[in-house]
Design goal:
This protein is α+β, with helices and mostly antiparallel strands. The protein has 3 domains: 6-133, no CATH class; 139-224, no CATH class; 228-260, no CATH class. It has helices at residues 8-15, 19-37, 69-76, 81-98, 103-133, 139-146, 151-160, 175-179, 193-196, 204-211, 215-225, and strands spanning 6-7, 49-55, 61-67, 164-167, 170-173, 183-185, 200-202, 229-232, 238-242. The strands form 4 sheets. Strands 1-3-2 form a 3-stranded antiparallel β-sheet. Strands 4-5 form a two-stranded antiparallel ribbon. A hairpin with a 5-residue loop joins strand 8 (229-232) and strand 9 (238-242). The longest helix is centred in the middle third of the chain and has 31 residues, at 103-133. The chain is flat. The N and C termini lie far apart (76 Å).
Length: 260
């Protein structure tokens, strides 16, 4: 039989997702699989994925990945029903085109394979949903699930913006997140506080409605927040220099700073 593959660009077009987001999903899945098997998967023999490129609208070459059936289905099990339906439907078409005599078998194998993947994930997904709906996730767990990188730095940014505060070494988020159902408060006597230092847990709603949809915006805000910059008073005098790596810097070390 002729081998059938699907690119991350194909998946992005079928699911109406941004290609960089699909690439991110695949690379995270590969990292997880690689960590479990202690092997590097990209471009490795029988890995199911190959690095490639495509030409964008400007004629510039951009990275993409070429996936086999197993890895394609692994990725889309994390998508909702409509998106899975679109990808599986296209896969069936591709297999039928590549191997016309195997259409019926192709449909059966494709659906059975996908169902097996979903069945394998069901217990973990059930536990994930239960935890998010009851005790909630730690800040780092929630960020990992939502694709928010640098969780500690993000939390520090929220503190600096007045969206969280630290009191006696314990961090709590603004009450508005509690009112929205995105956060649950944790009793100060809870033993878990000794491990996290946080007086809150993120709910499933918080992951799905707050962190996950805004992962990219949070990353951009953090990058901006970490830029070295001068803080000036009402008269235009520099009163502080903040940002990652700003310790020890002087005004003359900053470009384009108006000095008075």
């Amino acid at each position: 039989m002729n081998a059938v593959t699907m690119t991350t660009l194909d998946i992005a077009e079928l699911t109406h997702k941004r290609h960089d987001h699909v690439l991110r999903d695949v690379r995270r899945a590969l990292e997880s699989i690689s960590n479990q098997s202690n092997t590097r998967l990209v471009n490795a023999p029988k890995s199911g994925v190959v690095e490639s490129t495509f030409s964008d609208k400007k004629g510039e070459m951009r990275p993409m990945l070429v996936l086999d059936k197993h890895l394609t289905f692994t990725i889309i099990t994390g998508y909702d029903t409509a998106l899975r339906h679109a990808v599986v439907g296209r896969w069936i078409e591709l297999e039928a085109q590549a191997n016309p005599g195997f259409l019926a078998q192709t449909i059966s194998e494709s659906l059975n394979d996908l169902q097996k993947r979903i069945d394998m994930m069901a217990p973990a997904f059930t536990e994930h949903t239960r935890k998010g709906s009851t005790v909630g996730y730690t800040w780092r767990e929630a960020c990992r699930l939502a694709g928010v990188e640098n969780p500690d730095k993000v939390l520090a940014m929220l503190v600096s913006k007045g969206l969280a505060r630290v009191s006696n070494g314990l961090t709590e988020l603004h009450v508005k997140y509690v009112n929205r159902g995105h956060v649950k408060t944790v009793n100060r006597n809870n033993k878990a506080i000794k491990l996290t230092g946080h007086l809150f847990r993120i709910t499933l709603k918080g992951v799905e409605e707050w962190l996950q949809p805004n992962a990219e915006n949070i990353a951009e805000a953090l990058a901006d927040h970490l830029k070295v910059r001068a803080i000036v008073d009402a008269d235009g005098y520099v009163i502080d220099i903040v940002g990652e790596g700003s310790k020890g810097l002087k005004v003359q070390d900053l470009p384009k700073v108006v000095q008075r």
